[in-house]
Amino acid sequence: MKLWQKNKDALKEVSQFTVGNDREMDLYLSRFDVLGSLAHIQMLESVGLLAKDELTILSKELKVIHSEIEKGNFSIEEGVEDIHSQIELLLTRKLGEAGKKIHSGRSRNDQVLVDIKLFLRSEIQILTGEIKSLFELLLAKSEEHKDKLLPGYTHLQLAMPSSFGLWFGAYAESLADDLITLQSAYRITNKNPLGSAAGYGSSFPLNRRMTTNLLGFEDLNYNVVYAQMGRGKTERIVAQAISNVAATLSKLAIDACLFLNQNFAFISFPDELTTGSSIMPHKKNPDVFELIRAKCNSLQSLPNEIALLTANLPSGYHRDFQLLKEMIFPAFKTIADCLQMTGLMLSNIKIKENILEDEKYKFLFSVEEVNKLVLAGVPFRDAYKKVGNDIEEGKFTYSTKINHTHEGSIGNLCNNQIKESFEQTLSAFQFNKMEDSLKSLLK
Fold it and tell me: What is the CATH class of 108-145+162-356+413-441?
């Protein structure tokens, strides 16, 4: 069954090629297609395109379908082109002519647009929860290990003293910034395209504000041409937000791989969180972090893939957009898995004590010694030269005691301020409005 089918079907090879993996991808949208239809038919009844009794029976049957989807008892039948066709087919089988009326005033173009927006919105909410969990863990670890010093590197050469408080806190603050970009992506996603039809509106007196409120959107995509132009753009913006989170996790993962290496040996994990070798009995490999790194590096290519797929397309709908689903939909599970596994690993991390007591790290304290001379009144350039000469002549002496007090330094992590920034962004999502609206639709 195809919503566009007339008297002659397309060649079998054409149908197979054009449908591709769309039926599989459409299962991600099944619940949201029902929600969009529930809102659409309420609006149709309000403008006289459905009778009240038709609205009642259609709403009841759509809620039955939604329940079956939630139970995992839903599939797209063989020969049915997509999710929209499947749901309309189920309604028509059960309700006859009333089922054929739900498509009035919309096109598959705006139907899939609203489905995707609802899906992306839901997945962003789930992703936000995963980010919050890891953020809180990183801040807790930062506080727990704030007094444990760690070598800091530039150019992968010993540079200055750092701390595990700084290391964990840096990734917490990185996630706080990543959440800002995700919130921006959510704001763009949280606009209603329903009613734009094929991209040029409708001669029916549609009430687009009504469906906006029923679906819990913050606002409309007002211009119907732009509503269609937003396909690809919305996915690219969301993908960029995902890639930002992925970049944070990837950098953390390579740090962990280095720190676990025996030449560093700053951290360790229980045996059950690492893997072994088939021939080397001593191996404890950081496979989890290596796969997080690989998956997250792959996710960072996603915005570019989407940009290239949609590049140079004129306004209006194009079948190219269908392939966007295969790119963006699975990405949410990948990033969620990586966040969860990062959390699992860091929950069980063991930190080596007194790392900087080892004399091989003594030159980390050269800047500390320069600064001590400056504080005693020696001009900086003279102090720098003296300590440099002492190092060259083998006369360098140092203390491992440090006193960093400015904002964001070893002795003043500002974790409370980082937490406040994160929570301020988190509160801006206002997921409760979306949740309340969708619950009301399903009553």
Answer: mainly alpha
Distance of CA 289 to the CA centre of its chain: 18
Contact 162, 361 (CB under 8 A): no
pTM exceeds 0.85, yes or no:
yes
What mean pLDDT comes out for the span 142-169?
97
**Looking at residues 246-253, what average pLDDT do you find?**
98
Q: What is the 3-state secondary structure (H, E, C) of the chain?
A: CCCCCCCCCCCHHHHHHHHCCHHHHHHHHHHHHHHHHHHHHHHHHHCCCCCHHHHHHHHHHHHHHHHHHHHCCCCCCCCCCCHHHHHHHHHHHHHHHHHHHHHCCCCHHHHHHHHHHHHHHHHHHHHHHHHHHHHHHHHHHHHHCCCCEEEEEECCEEEEEEEHHHHHHHHHHHHHHHHHHHHHHHHHHCEECCCCCCCCCCCCCCCHHHHHHHCCCCEECCCHHHHHHHHHHHHHHHHHHHHHHHHHHHHHHHHHHHHHCCCCCCEECCHHHCECCCCCCCCCECHHHHHHHHHHHHHCCHHHHHHHHHCCCCCCCCHHHHHHHHHHHHHHHHHHHHHHHHHHHHHCCEECCCHHHCHHHHHHHHHHHHHHHHHCCCCHHHHHHHHHHHHHCCCCCCCCCCCCCCCCECCECCHHHHHHHHHHHHHCCCHHHHHHHHHHHCC
Task: Specify burial of residue 91 (Cβ count, 10 A radius: 0-12, 13-18, 19+).
Answer: buried
Cα 64 → chain centroid: 31
Instruction: Give the pLDDT confidence score for residue 15 in this predicted structure.
Output: 72
Which position has the higher pLDDT, 7 or 155?
A: 155
- The CATH topology of domain 12-103 is Fumarase C; Chain B, domain 1 (1.10.275)
In angstroms, the CA 200 to CA 224 distance is 6
Q: Which residues contact 340 (CB under 8 A, 6 or more apart)?
A: 130
- Per the listing, tokens 């939604």 go with 66
Fill in the amino acid letter for 173: E
Per-residue model confidence (pLDDT) at position 11: 73
The predicted model gives 2-11 an average pLDDT of 55
All structural domains of the chain with their residue ranges: 12-103, 108-145+162-356+413-441, 358-409
Average pLDDT over residues 395-402: 94
Are the folds of 12-103 and 108-145+162-356+413-441 the same?
no
Per-residue confidence at 4, pLDDT binned at 50, 70, 90? very low
Strands 191-192 and 219-220 turn out to be: parallel
